[in-house]
Amino acid sequence: MPPFADTSIWAWLGPVLVATFGALLRFDRLALPKAVVFDETYYAKDALSLLTYGVERTFLGTSDNPIADQRLLAGRDDLWVTCTPDSLDPCASYVAHPPLGKWLIGVGEWLWGADPFGWRFAAAVLGSLSILLVARVARRMTRSTLLGCLAGLLLALDGLHFVLSRTALLDVFLMFWVLAGFGCLVVDRDRSRERLARWYEGSSLAGAGPWLGVRPWRIGAGVCLGAAVATKWSGVFFLVAFAVMSLLWDAGARRAVGLRHPFSGALRRDVPTALAGLGLVPVVVYVASWAGWFATPYGYGRNWAQATSSGWSYWVFSSIRSWIDYQSQVLGYHTGLDQSHPYQSWPWQWPLLIRPVAFHYTGGAGTCGAPSCAQAVLGVGTPVIWYGSLIALIGLIAWYVATRDWRAGAVLLTYGVGWLPWFYYAIADKRTMFLFYMAPMLPFMAIALALGAGLLIGRAGPQSSRRAIGAAVVGAFTLLALINFWWLYPVISAEDIPYDDWHRRMLFPSWI
């Protein structure tokens, strides 16, 4: 790998332009549909409750009660059941996910109001920033601004990423924090190798090698991955995998510089700081995300009266005990979630886009100028990008087996960690799951395509017919992805179109 230079104006201007393009797509008509879409019926209300009370409270009727949805859309604040100091339990809402993602949704509601634009604002912001992140991360991994911008553009043109960036669900926040944590570790990898290279000049290669310092980028990764777990528990898979990956990178760097005992050196010099940065820091972030639950009496299972009855020390231990018991109940809920759903799908179907999720659909007479109209938000990926990334990932397997290239290994590891655990839950627990659980893998599908494009184009050097052909293939694929996204756009952005136009865009019968 050549030294990494970050001085060109295009190093930032290119990714920023691509991210701006993606942001314009995501913020355009963000308030449409003017309805509570799919699981927004949980998270938009929970976010507003967090802003109002510090914790999630039970709202009127069931979670998908249309009366409560109408009151939310009308801006009314009488959404929650009546709660008095003598009856806290009825107003405490049992929630299945940690609060950080809902706090982020609440920031948008605080800035813009509790309306569709407000509760989708944070998703659009972080979805747009993830395009910038993936472009910068891919650029650092490939040492190519062109390939970095290609990865960002492909992520911007993915239909599922587009829909999740315009919907108040938690998955886009999980995706953002996983990508940010990965990016921090890639930067940490470069910085630690720079320190090793400086130490190598004139140093003895005997012993365990140097301690590489506090490593702030690794701490930053711990903050981001802790935030991922504080959004959805599935973030813990990435936390564990990235911690192991980072330590293997450390051992590989020590071996590359010529140290005679690279693994024992990494164990002695790098593991202690890794335990702090990728062990302690994520725990602190996760617990801190529950600050509202600790600070108020309204949280589910809070046991406030008992905790505050016998002094501060009893309050601490009783609160922690109640909180741990709550986490145990949530774990039981997730492992036992097997209720049938019309849009559920199995993980082996996800890469092929067999069963997407209809986030929103209305039909009948409309303003489209046809006898029958349709307005839809279909949570589906752009087929050209998804099938292309599947080919790229298979190619990366062969590339990694042949070369042991760390970039291929990192992308394959992340994709596998985000996908394969769901096979266990599907087979052992028959758990209800959906296509949008693929959200954390979307940036790495784009990076896989960028790495594959780099292999097709070849290294910079004298012009050759092979390089020209490779560039033409990559350009044609990018153009196809753009056309495919444009073709899907009306059914992923709630445009009012004739029913026949909607039906023509249903690639498989299972999309309906």
From TrEMBL:
Domain Protein O-mannosyl-transferase C-terminal four TM, residue spans: 321-511
Residue stretches spanning the membrane: 9-27, 117-138, 145-163, 169-187, 236-253, 274-295, 384-402, 409-428, 434-457, 469-489
Positions of the ArnT-like N-terminal domain: 117-251
InterPro entries with a match to the protein in the record: ArnT-like_N, PMT-like, PMT_4TMC
Pathway: Protein modification; protein glycosylation
Pfam families per the UniProt record, alphabetical: PMT, PMT_4TMC
Membrane topology value: Multi-pass membrane protein
Keyword annotations: Cell membrane, Glycosyltransferase, Membrane, Transferase, Transmembrane, Transmembrane helix
Family named by the database record: Belongs to the glycosyltransferase 39 family.
Function: Protein O-mannosyltransferase that catalyzes the transfer of a single mannose residue from a polyprenol phospho-mannosyl lipidic donor to the hydroxyl group of selected serine and threonine residues in acceptor proteins.
Identification of the protein by name: Polyprenol-phosphate-mannose--protein mannosyltransferase
